[in-house]
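Query structure, 244 tokens:
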């Protein structure tokens, strides 16, 4: 069982598209980013499991989302959104108005990690009385990833590299906050064996069976065919006969 449980909440969904403008639906970006966070976090780090409040385009009440996080005993909750409301656009995060010290720390860590990957306008680390960050029992942050109704931001949200940066920022922020360890990328390189040299452990036996003539002494490390095995059995039978 994974040591850490992370609840990622893709905002909106189904009949609720969230903010819509410039050909972008907030619910789609939220889901794409959330699925990306799950895949990358679980592939890159040990001991972490990502639960999603939704993994498809379905509608969920806010209460269903926090109930899921609380019921699963998630260690942290991150709710993924895009912004709207015009202006110059940019990135901002929200914690609860009377957030725990750990929520503040999670916001700080996530915010910095995402800004460093995403760049652009930093609208700051804010506090607001929002359901997702108020009703969750664990440290919780809501991220507002650019404005769908600001043309420059909308253009960015259409670029795979920007979606990637948003995903990467979340992954790195979560990993830093939880102190996750990276999975071993360098799998031990298995030394290709030389089939013409017997393994250390088999040296004595190999000498014995070749001395007795059961094997001809070549290719000790090769696999054996049924014909070859037949030949060895035949030699063995003759050997036993001679002895008897
Ligand atoms: Zn939203």
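Result returned for the query:
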């Amino acid at each position: 069982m994974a040591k850490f449980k992370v609840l990622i909440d893709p905002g909106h969904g189904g009949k609720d598209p969230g903010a819509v403008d410039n050909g972008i639906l907030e619910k789609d970006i939220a889901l794409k980013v959330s699925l990306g966070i799950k895949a990358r976090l679980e592939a890159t780090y040990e001991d972490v499991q990502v639960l999603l409040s939704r993994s498809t385009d379905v509608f969920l009440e806010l209460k269903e989302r926090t109930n899921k996080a609380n019921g699963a005993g998630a260690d942290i909750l991150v709710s993924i959104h895009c912004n709207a409301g015009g202006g110059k656009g940019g990135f901002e995060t929200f914690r609860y108005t009377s957030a725990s010290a750990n929520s503040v720390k999670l916001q700080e860590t996530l915010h910095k990690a995402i800004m460093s990957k995403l760049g652009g306008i930093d609208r700051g680390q804010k506090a607001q009385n929002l359901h997702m960050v108020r009703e969750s029992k664990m440290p919780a942050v809501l991220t507002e990833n650019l404005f769908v109704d600001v043309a420059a931001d909308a253009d960015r949200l259409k670029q795979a590299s920007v979606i990637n940066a948003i995903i990467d920022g979340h992954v790195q922020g979560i990993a830093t906050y939880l102190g996750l360890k990276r999975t071993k990328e360098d799998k031990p390189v298995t030394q290709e064996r030389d089939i013409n040299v017997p393994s250390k452990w088999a040296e004595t036996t190999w000498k014995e069976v070749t001395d007795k003539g059961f094997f001809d002494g070549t290719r000790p490390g090769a696999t054996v065919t049924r014909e070859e095995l037949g030949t060895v059995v035949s030699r063995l039978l003759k050997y036993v006969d001679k002895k008897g």
